[in-house]
Design goal:
Elements: H1 2-42, E1 44-45, E2 66-68, E3 74-78, E4 85-86, E5 100-102, E6 107-111, E7 124-126, E8 131-135, E9 146-148, E10 153-157, E11 170-172, E12 177-179, E13 194-196, E14 218-220, E15 227-229, E16 242-244, E17 249-251, E18 266-268, E19 275-276, E20 290-292, E21 297-301, E22 314-316, E23 321-323, E24 338-340, E25 347-349, E26 362-364, E27 369-372, E28 386-388, E29 393-396, E30 410-412, E31 417-421, E32 434-436, E33 441-445, E34 458-460, E35 465-467, E36 482-486, E37 489-493
Parallel strand pairs: 3-5, 4-6, 5-7, 6-8, 7-9, 8-10, 9-11, 10-12, 11-13, 13-14, 14-16, 15-17, 16-18, 18-20, 19-21, 20-22, 21-23, 22-24, 24-26, 25-27, 26-28, 27-29, 28-30, 29-31, 30-32, 31-33, 32-34, 33-35
Antiparallel strand pairs: 1-4, 2-3, 34-37, 36-37
The chain binds 2-acetamido-2-deoxy-beta-D-glucopyranose (11 copies).
The site of one 2-acetamido-2-deoxy-beta-D-glucopyranose (NAG) has 4 residues, from β6.
Signal peptide: 1-29
Family: Belongs to the RLP family.
Membrane topology: Single-pass type I membrane protein
């Protein structure tokens, strides 16, 4: 019996020994994490005292903004929008088990630490909406899925190594001052779903290799200085939901391959130098909600094929060189809310049923060569608030139905050939603040009616056939600097 005691006591001692070793290792690891956090805190200013319980008397797993794993290791630092300023020390990027760092919407400044991409555990990094300057550091993190460095003042080129973040699904470098070309290596990011490089100073062409990034759902490359043509290969990105290339220097035609993007809901190509017609294939994108091709050099007709875009809510084709008629098909798009076709060379009549089956809130067809009457049903939705038809050749009376359109706020019908009298309800629209019907052929006494337009700030009746004295009041206190010019030339403006 006694002989057996020795080995047992011995194994208990061995066990104790290992227990102590392991425990002290864990303590050292905890001390390391504690020190790294305190070092991070020491370089920050914290005016809201959000970090006030960051001191060693409480276990760091209970500190504000810190979340630990179930084995008491720091996994999450979440300090978004806490008005923290100062510099970020590299220490938090050395936390051995860190997975999520969110320091967005603060006033952090200075350069990003060189070893920001040295962690092997990090999956989510959001440093957006701060004041970081200097270059994006070299390096990459294999596991990182989300990298958001947007809305800082980061400069220099996008590092080639961006292509080594093999797990990246979300990349936002927008709203910085990055220069140079889009690095080709970016096309290695085959899991990437969201790519935002918007609002930088990027130059060169959009790489055609982007067409190989089949997981992409959102592309935002707007507000740069990209040039050349839109690559045909983008038509291969069949998961794409948003394509936004606005405010660049893109030339050539819109590739008809974009008609293969059958999941596309938002196509924004405005403010470029695109020419030629809208490819017919675009009208097969039946999921489109918003189509904005304004401010380009596009030409040709807007085809009746647009009837296929049953989900369309917003159509902006203004400031182009479109000719022909406004397609009648637009009147049967049930969700159409905003229709802006101004500054083109459109002719013929406005489709007479426009508005009846739509949900119009904004209609701007100004500066074209439109003729005929203003349709009766424009305000059938009861939501029309902007009606802008100036500088056309519209004639006949302003439809009576519009005088019942209580939602109207901004009405600009000047420079047409409208005739007849203003109905008495028209001068009682409660929300209209801007009302310009000058340079038409309208007539009638203007003082024989009550003007009750309490919101009015700008009124121009000039260059019509109105007569009679001025009314005592237009019903608005906001209307100032009243300037009657002559019997038939009336105008007044607010400041
Ligand atoms: C707790 O940790 C173990 C391993 O350390 C892990 O398998 C488990 O998923 C964790 N549980 C939670 C809820 O995080
Ligand atoms: C954040 O700090 C700015 C000045 O840096 C101050 O104007 C602002 O009021 C602060 N916000 C809060 C919520 O305290
Ligand atoms: C990063 O933070 C900002 C501000 O809190 C937020 O709007 C944005 O969605 C975040 N980015 C990601 C990828 O979650
Ligand atoms: C952040 O940058 C903006 C723009 O340069 C500047 O106006 C602001 O003062 C900066 N804030 C801090 C805290 O540095
Ligand atoms: C990144 O590495 C390249 C060479 O590989 C070097 O030219 C560049 O200066 C480095 N950038 C930074 C921010 O360290
Ligand atoms: C487009 O390029 C022209 C010269 O080719 C340049 O003057 C202009 O600033 C560029 N536009 C943009 C938005 O960068
Ligand atoms: C845009 O690029 C063109 C030519 O590539 C260049 O002439 C122009 O200066 C650039 N504009 C800006 C604002 O960077
Ligand atoms: C688009 O689809 C058509 C068939 O519908 C196919 O012939 C064409 O190659 C595709 N284009 C691209 C760029 O994927
Ligand atoms: C617009 O079209 C007319 C012919 O209809 C053409 O003469 C003119 O050059 C075009 N303008 C632009 C900017 O494309
Ligand atoms: C019409 O537009 C309004 C807002 O402008 C919206 O609340 C309403 O749901 C829309 N109706 C339809 C049928 O789309
Ligand atoms: C203006 O209207 C009157 C009838 O009210 C009509 O006789 C005249 O031809 C019209 N003038 C123009 C330029 O349309």
């Amino acid at each position: 019996m006694a002989a057996a005691k020795g080995p047992q006591a011995c194994s208990a001692m061995v066990f104790m020994f290992w227990f102590l070793v392991l425990n002290s290792r864990m303590l050292r690891a905890e001390n390391l994490e504690l020190e790294l956090l305190l070092s991070f805190k020491s370089s920050l200013n914290d005016p809201l005292n959000y970090l006030s319980n960051w001191n060693p008397s409480a276990t760091f797993c209970k500190w504000q903004g810190i979340t630990c794993t179930n084995s008491s290791r720091i996994a999450v630092i979440e300090l978004s929008g806490k008005n923290i300023s100062g510099k970020v020390s590299s220490s938090i990027f050395q936390l051995p088990y860190i997975q999520t760092i969110d320091l967005s919407i603060n006033q952090l400044s200075g350069k990003l630490p060189d070893d920001i991409f040295s962690s092997s555990s990090l999956r989510f990094l959001n440093l957006s909406n701060n004041n970081f300057t200097g270059p994006i550091p070299n390096g990459s993190i294999f596991l990182l899925e989300t990298l958001d460095l947007s809305n800082n003042m980061l400069s220099g080129k996008i590092p080639q190594e961006i292509g080594s973040f093999s797990s990246l699904r979300f990349l936002d470098l927008g709203g910085n001052v990055l220069v140079g070309k889009i690095p080709l290596s970016i096309t290695n990011l085959r899991s990437l779903q969201v790519l935002t490089l918007a609002s930088n100073q990027l130059v060169g062409q959009i790489p055609s290799e982007l067409g190989q990034m089949r997981s992409l759902k959102w592309i935002y490359l707007g507000y740069n200085n990209l040039s050349g043509e839109i690559p045909i290969e983008l038509g291969q990105l069949t998961s794409l939901n948003h394509l936004d290339l606005v405010y660049n220097n893109l030339t050539g035609q819109i590739p008809s391959s974009l008609g293969n993007l059958s999941n596309l809901q938002y196509l924004f190509l405005y403010q470029n130098k695109l020419a030629g017609p809208i490819p017919k294939s675009i009208f097969g994108l039946t999921k489109l909600i918003s189509l904005d091709l304004s401010d380009n050099y596009l030409s040709g007709e807007i085809p009746e094929l647009i009837i296929k875009l049953k989900n369309l809510e917003i159509l902006h084709l203004f400031s182009n060189n479109f000719t022909g008629k406004i397609p009648v098909a637009l009147s049967s798009l049930p969700r159409l809310r905003i229709l802006q076709l101004w500054s083109n060379k459109l002719s013929g009549e406005i489709p007479k049923d426009l508005g009846k089956q739509n949900n119009l809130t904004v209609l701007d067809l100004s500066t074209n060569s439109l003729t005929g009457r203003i349709p009766e049903g424009l305000c059938s939705s009861g939501n029309l608030f902007k009606l802008i038809l100036f500088s056309n050749s519209l004639e006949d009376e302003i439809p009576k139905s519009l005088s019942a359109c209580k939602s109207l706020r901004r009405v600009r019908l000047q420079d047409n050939s409208l005739s007849g009298e203003l109905s008495s309800e028209f001068t009682k629209l409660p929300l209209v603040y801007f009302f310009d019907i000058s340079s038409n052929n309208l007539s009638g006494r203007i003082d024989s009616r009550k003007w009750e337009m309490p919101s009015l700030q700008m009124l121009s009746l000039a260059k019509n056939g109105f007569w009679g004295g001025l009314p005592d009041s237009f019903g608005s206190e906001n209307l100032e600097n009243f300037r009657p010019v002559s019997k038939s030339v009336l105008g007044c403006y607010s400041t």
